[in-house]
């Protein structure tokens, strides 16, 4: 028999991992719903022409393509491809549903697939967790995305995080004011590195073919107070006024919405080309955790299929990264089960009473499991429950049955005590 | 610009559909958890050799195959395939995780993909919703599957349903007792039709090449009381004793677990070959709805990758079918949103108060949306909220702000009244 394996770069989510994931997804879903974002799901695969030409040459290589059924497939033709992100499907949905009321606020929590080289913690199937506001160009909408990130990270239990905010057009104005407009792409790439490396290291790649020393000195002067919006705007001059005014509005609205840990950061670049307005990124500030959420305004992308410009702003929570960090920090509910108790089976003739007790507890809203091996041999049953992480076992033997009682055993302490069924429900709820 | 379409046989799940689906999945998940089933998810695709040879020639044609990345893909080679069901992945997980404590009770709610001819209500991507108990051969386990179906259909709100129960080995004994053993396959296919057509129509295909009139007359006599287990067992004789005894135990355990609408049905065949013990199927009894759930014991399948026999029993809920039926019957929560209120924006200078109010309501656990168009023009804001199905709008104008009050407008009745923020929270919770 050949060895059995899951596909390369994929993993099974066994119960312990699933409990943590369902809890985190549930929290994020609640936060999205708090703001009026509505759930959306799109199919796992799209027509291949829907995805091709959207992700650049490098991205395109990572798209999983599906063979045609029948003749075409035998000739190696592909007509479908697995979802690579959740943004292109959103753009398709918007184009196909012109009657959707705008703004359309949707969230989407689904896996995407990329044929990336698998690495520790990087998989070929992973969940994305996006919320976007489509159809309005509003600073309140931008601020809501920041507030959503704030609420999500707070409710997940992170005590210390910051949401960095910048503006794509302010970045352009900064680069232009320094006299480096024709090198914008490479300059922004360098600026984006400033949170990790020193100025010299970040700009070293530009020594050969870059804007030259005069422009870089001007740039460094403008960015000398990267968290002071007014100082940066003053240093840049006219070109900064419009984006700075937008950022002031986003900051004010975000504060009103309760997201008070938003900081302006002139060195936040967050990708190139894609964004058209405010951009942001959330970082956990205690410990060397990188970005766990990000987003911004991108007014060109959602209209790609309809040929019109559709304003859009969105946030993407790094679900897989959050799960890894929360696991490392012990922030996830541990124990692999939500089952509260194992209803043991003392003997076959008492099965009707044991099963009836299980049904009664379930009707009271408790999650209980029934022993499914042979009845008797309680030690084995306790051991099984403990190995499953189930905290309690319930015994209904002939003595208990005669007295109209049940015995509850705490599998951690070993303590066992008799009680009525009503007391049992209370004890298990505790 | 070419027309934009989703892939053939797939659909987008827009918010209204998603709310219904999330509610139904939530209920089913709760029921599974009540019995100690644990969540599991497996990757969307498997190595192609994992899936091939498992579904027969007809099934194999429906498997979506994924091109290799790089050179092999250019030559049309496929190395991966999309999940066709949730049972083969379960069998792989069991083989790959020999340390899983047994019984392993898992549920799995994920889409599967089949390149079937798309039809009304039949899609190429659809959710399966399976719960299986692996590793024990127990009548209590079989009964739990019936109880899970009972609880799920009850909690989803179906007032009238029946769970039909039979036994694969009793069926074989029936056919053998009639003297038709060598035609078992085609006889079972005919028996399985008896819930839809008359005896003559069901057995017409066997006129040419079948067990002959004597055997068929004997068969009809045995099946003359299809819901009376004792009568059928007596008519069959010795061969029926073991499976009949198992069915008596399943019926008794199911009743103890509270599943009281289980009926023996000697004509339930439910597929061929796959099952090895008790089989069952749930039907909604008011109206012409077919099967909405089914399952049974299949002791040969889960061990397919490990080469050992692993007992297993499982239930599959027809999620897509349930959603269609519930939609038709108005059993689903209507209204496309869970958003309770739109916080309108009266003017830009009152934005901080409006956004602060929204934040306050969210902190109180209420789902509220903020108007994201230009502030002012309340009529337009009310209209938008109403078009979204949001029941209330909240107005915070200069008068309300001065009085420390807010106005709540019921968008159905048009009634508007002023209240304190505390009263507002209560009114929205109502």
What is shown here, in short?
Two copies of one chain form a homodimer. The first copy, chain A, is built from 17 helices and 16 strands.
Structural summary, described in words:
The structure is a homodimer of 430-residue chains. Chain A is an alpha+beta fold. Chain A has a domain of 89 residues: Rossmann fold (3-Layer(aba) Sandwich). Chain A is 39% helix and 19% strand. Chain A has 17 helices and 16 strands. In chain A, the strands form three sheets. An eight-stranded mixed sheet of chain A has the order 1-5-6-11-10-9-7-8. In chain A, strand 15 and strand 16 form a beta hairpin. The radius of gyration of chain A is 28 Å and the shape is elongated. The model of chain A has no long low-confidence stretch (mean pLDDT 94).
CATH superfamily of the domain at 341-429 in chain A: Anticodon-binding domain
End-to-end separation of chain A = 49 Å
Oligomer: homodimer
Question: What is the CATH first-level class name of the domain at 341-429 in chain A?
Answer: Alpha Beta
The percent range for strand residues of chain A is 15-25%
Biggest sheet features of chain A: 8 strands, mixed
Quickly give the structural class of chain A.
alpha+beta
Strand order of the largest sheet of chain A: 1-5-6-11-10-9-7-8
Query: How many strands in all of chain A?
Result: 16
What best-fitting shape of chain A do the alpha-carbon axes yield?
elongated
Largest interface: A-B, 103 and 103 residues
Name given to the CATH architecture of the domain at 341-429 in chain A: 3-Layer(aba) Sandwich
Question: What is the residue-averaged pLDDT of chain A?
Answer: 94
Low-confidence regions of chain A? none
Q: What is the radius of gyration of chain A?
A: 28 Å
Helix content of chain A: 25-40%
What is the name of the CATH topology of the domain at 341-429 in chain A? Rossmann fold
Tally the helices of chain A.
17
